[in-house]
Design goal:
The complex is a heterodimer. Chain A is an alpha/beta fold. Chain A is built from ten helices and eleven strands. An eight-stranded parallel beta barrel of chain A has the order 1-3-4-5-6-9-10-11, surrounded by seven helices. By secondary structure, chain B is an alpha/beta fold. In chain B, the strands form three sheets. Chain B has a seven-stranded mixed beta sheet with strand order 2-1-3-4-13-12-11. Chain B has a four-stranded mixed beta sheet with strand order 6-5-7-10, covered by helices on one side. In chain B, strands 8-9 form a two-stranded antiparallel ribbon. The longest helix of chain B is centred in the C-terminal third of the chain and has 13 residues, at 179-191. Chain B is globular and about 45 Å long. Chain A binds chain B through residues 1-5, 40, 43, 45-46, 67, 70-71, 74-76, 93-98, 118-124, 166-167, 195-197, 220-221, 250, 252, 254, and chain B through 10-11, 13-14, 17-18, 20-21, 46-48, 106, 109-117, 133-134, 136, 138-140, 154-155, 174, 176-183.
Chain lengths: 254, 194
């Protein structure tokens, strides 16, 4: 049976993890490779690296980091943040990323999704959507939520599916950082409207939130950052509890 | 030395790193002599079937692969291309293994993405791997069950996640991305005698 995925997200700035990490067994909490290795050992199902640096050196640093991560871990990972061209994607995939996540560039140039899907295959093209509820409508936002667009979340997701996106990473800005649970209603609607895997993001605070993202939200995967980085929720414990709640998860007895 | 067939398929880097972790030397190559003389050959794949076949033809590798005598492992699209025909782009495969490749029904999400359990494991590739182990898969097309099936998984019904015919092996999952169990499959392949 296909299992639900648990995905820690690492924010990267100039090749280092930011937002802080509180892991007792790491020598260097800022090293993304060390953190990634730890998560792989804990049976995280996938990792997402989100590059938030804005320097000119950024591409090279990110490409180097991807290479080091691919060398160190044996689970799939996605890289996102400022990717805007076929060339950007080519370098990251060549260095060992399994998937790339496109956000603003997809809105600014939707044809990019068609081009990327044709060239590299849909399976490695994740589109990230940040949306916020405004007067009962879920509106897509850009630049970390600073810029409002005219796009409706559900219409946009459908368009992305038809253009060849392989997966949708939906972050509810209303829920992000609140630790009050995922946007399950919107997730459920998204999941029934389109036929792509959906990653739930924004709002994880407890084990039951993960359970609900799968049962109520019908998500295929759930992503979180701080609850994992600060050890508030341990991945092995989370997966054990999900299994007890009859949710299919990968637990390897080693 | 393991030759990884280079025809522009995606993510060969992770495969090379996985072989490195097993202490095995590998070379990414499209050179016919190098491929023929390698102890083992890996035929990777990610991307679209039609363009992959065109690239293989252009490099003259489409006929070479079928003539190889050493153990050959097709991964993901590499496994699908060992078959006779694929619905993806409606093109002929290499025809080494019987079977056709079809798209998953829209009753399930396509692509299938994530870790699925595998069962009915047969043959040397799955030595030491428990029934129900999880492997990482990402694909929109699948190979039906046949007499060359050596492992099954379920997604809208049972389908082949591994094939074997003589020295040709194929896995739909990504062993290089399937943690310790995947590493075991790769290690089993490397132990096969020529």
């Amino acid at each position: 049976m296909l299992t639900k995925r648990i995905i820690p997200c690492l924010d990267i700035k100039d090749g280092r993890t930011v937002k802080g990490v509180n892991f007792v067994n790491l020598r260097d909490a800022g090293d993304p490779v060390e953190l990634a290795t730890q998560y792989a050992l804990e049976q995280a199902d996938e990792l997402v690296f989100l590059d938030i640096s804005a320097t000119e050196q950024k591409r090279k640093t990110l490409a180097d980091l991807v290479l080091r991560v691919a060398e160190a871990i044996d689970i799939p990972f996605t890289v996102g943040g400022g990717i805007s061209s076929v060339k950007d994607v080519e370098i990251l995939l060549k260095n060992g990323a399994d998937k790339v996540s496109i956000n603003s560039a997809a809105v600014n140039n939707p044809n990019l999704i068609d081009e990327l899907a044709n060239q590299f295959g849909s399976q490695c093209i994740v589109v990230a959507i940040d949306a916020k509820q405004i007067k009962d409508q879920w509106k897509v936002h850009l630049v970390g939520g600073k810029v409002l667009t005219e796009l409706d979340l559900f219409d946009w997701a459908r368009e992305l599916e038809s253009r060849g996106a392989g997966e949708i990473l939906f972050t509810s800005m209303d829920h992000d950082g609140t630790k009050s649970g995922f946007a399950n209603k919107a997730l459920e609607r998204l999941s029934s409207n389109i036929n792509l895997p959906i990653i739930a993001s924004g709002g994880a605070g407890s084990v039951s939130h993960f359970v609900e993202s799968f049962t109520l939200g019908k998500a295929d995967a759930a992503l979180a950052a701080s609850v994992f980085h600060f050890g508030e929720i341990s991945i092995p414990k989370l997966k054990k509890e999900l299994k007890q709640q009859q949710i299919a998860v990968r637990i390897d007895e080693l | 030395m393991v030759a990884i067939i280079d025809y522009g398929a995606g993510n060969t880097k992770s495969l090379q790193f996985a072989l490195d972790r097993l202490g095995t030397d590998s070379i990414l190559t499209s050179d016919a002599a190098q491929i023929k003389n390698a102890e083992k050959v890996i035929f990777p794949g990610q991307g679209a079937a039609a363009s992959a076949i065109r690239k293989l033809q252009r490099l003259g590798l489409d006929t070479l692969i079928g003539d190889l005598k050493q153990p050959v492992l097709g991964i993901c699209l590499g496994m699908q291309l060992l078959c006779e025909h694929t619905e993806e782009g409606d093109v002929s495969g290499l025809g080494i293994v019987k079977g056709t490749v079809k798209r998953f029904s829209n009753k399930v999400k396509v692509p299938q993405m994530g870790w699925n359990s595998i069962h009915d494991l047969k043959g040397p590739l799955f030595e030491g791997i428990d029934e129900g182990s999880y492997m990482y898969l990402v694909h929109s097309y699948f190979v039906s069950k046949s007499k060359e099936t050596v492992a099954l998984s379920d997604y809208n019904g049972a389908y082949s996640v591994a094939l074997q015919k003589e020295n040709f092996y194929g896995v739909q999952f990504h062993p290089e991305k399937s943690s310790q169990k995947g590493q075991q499959v790769l290690s089993n392949f490397l132990k096969l005698s020529s």
